[in-house]
């Protein structure tokens, strides 16, 4: 999509910050990959303080989810660019939640160890790649177009 006006540097930075939510949520899916390749954990070292706070505070995910929804996405005074990226991060978080339901169902199947590892790694790598793409696009001042997800975002953000 073309730009709806120019974006300032602070707008670009604030638009990329909500993507920390899906990145922190998907971290649990990376357990198999990070155990097999521990050097990849170095990439996530800057997130460790946020992970401790996030998982240390009860209902932190729910609080952040509704705070972003009510204070950013539904606030017309905030630029469309920031609201779009915030809503896209929220929908990615919902996708992670739905994937966790799927993995809970797959766990019920006996002998599904390899399938679980593959599913966890695929979800982890897919969300991390999507977050990286979205953050890079946001920092460049462009709308990150993700099939199906961006369509849902455009329906929510006026």
Description:
- It is built from eight helices and no strands.
- With 158 residues, it is an all-alpha fold.
- 27% of the residues are buried.
- Helix content is 68%, strand content 0%.
- The radius of gyration is 16 Å and the shape is globular.
Structure class: mainly alpha
Secondary-structure element order, as H and E?
A: HHHHHHHH
What is the strand content?
under 5%
- Work out the helicity level: 55-70%
Got a strand count? 0
Task: Report how far the terminal alpha carbons are from each other.
Answer: 15 Å
Taking all residues together, what is the mean pLDDT? 92
CA-based shape: globular
Helix count equals 8
Largest sheet: none
Q: Would you spell out the secondary-structure blueprint of this structure?
A:
Blueprint: H1 9-16, H2 20-26, H3 31-36, H4 48-56, H5 60-73, H6 80-107, H7 113-139, H8 149-156
Helix pairs in contact: 1-6, 1-7, 2-6, 2-7, 5-6, 6-7, 6-8
Question: Which tags fit this structure?
Answer:
158 residues, mainly alpha
Quick structural gist:
With 158 residues, this protein is mainly α. The chain has helices at residues 9-16, 20-26, 31-36, 48-56, 60-73, 80-107, 113-139, 149-156.
């Amino acid at each position: 999509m073309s730009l709806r006006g120019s974006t300032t540097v602070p707008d670009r930075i604030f638009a990329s910050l909500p993507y920390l939510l899906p990145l922190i949520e998907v971290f649990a899916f990376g357990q198999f990959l990070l155990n097999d390749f521990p050097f990849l954990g170095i990439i996530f070292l800057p997130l460790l303080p946020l992970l401790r706070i996030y998982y240390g505070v009860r209902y932190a995910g729910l609080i952040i989810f509704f705070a972003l929804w009510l204070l950013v996405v539904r606030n017309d005074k905030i630029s469309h660019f920031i609201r779009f990226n915030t809503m896209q991060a929220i929908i990615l978080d919902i996708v992670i939640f739905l994937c966790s339901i799927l993995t809970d169902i797959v766990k019920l199947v006996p002998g599904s160890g390899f399938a679980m590892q593959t599913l966890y790694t695929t979800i982890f790598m897919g969300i991390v790649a999507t977050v990286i793409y979205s953050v890079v696009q946001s920092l460049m001042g462009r709308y990150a177009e993700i099939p199906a997800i961006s369509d849902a975002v455009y329906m929510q953000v006026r």
